[in-house]
Amino acid sequence: MLWFMLEALIFDVDGTLADTERDGHRPAFNAAFVELGLGWHWDEALYGELLAVTGGKERIRFFCERHAPEFLNQADAAARIRELHAAKTRHYVALCAQGIPLRPGIERLLREAHAAGLRLAIATTTTPENVNALLAPDLLALFEKVGAGDTVPNKKPAPDIYQWVLAQLALPASACLAIEDSANGLKASRAAGLATVITRTGYTNDHDFFGALALLPDLAQVTVPLLRHWHDEAYGSDKIM
Question: What is the model's pTM?
Fold first, then answer.
């Protein structure tokens, strides 16, 4: 169904709202490894490779398959991965309490979009605890729906989390724009039929963003009228239909 009016913005979290992969998740993983007595350390280069997989527990398993297969041979490997991820989440929440800054333009745009009557939602693979820790309560309250963590079984690049959010909003994809930062995020949003604005990070500069509606360094210069214009252009042509 065609829908030519922009009604909602759906945001990814990690890398999109804040540079959390660099400033939060990688240090939290490493702190969890130390806490549980593992000799692992994810440097920036390795972590960049691991970002090919979305979801923290999935990322740990992906690492083990390639670098620590003996860990997966334990009878309780799945339980230990859950324990490790829980420890990582605690460290991440502590880092957020110290303050992880939002990316340029994010807070302003969220407030302007809400004031303009646009509905806001989140579609992320990170846990709800991480979302709550990152966003101040007054900003979190602007989001009508939050799809996070294990809300759906298949994580990005599968479109499931976006499909779930669209269903919760009771809107077609053509009434929304997605805001993402990675190739996996773009694949997920596009597979759900969403026109998508990309704001790259240091970890995603070399990703293939073919099919993005706009490709930007951040949202500092993005306004609600500009988003409406991009949306009108996207759904007034054959670009994404």
Answer: 0.87
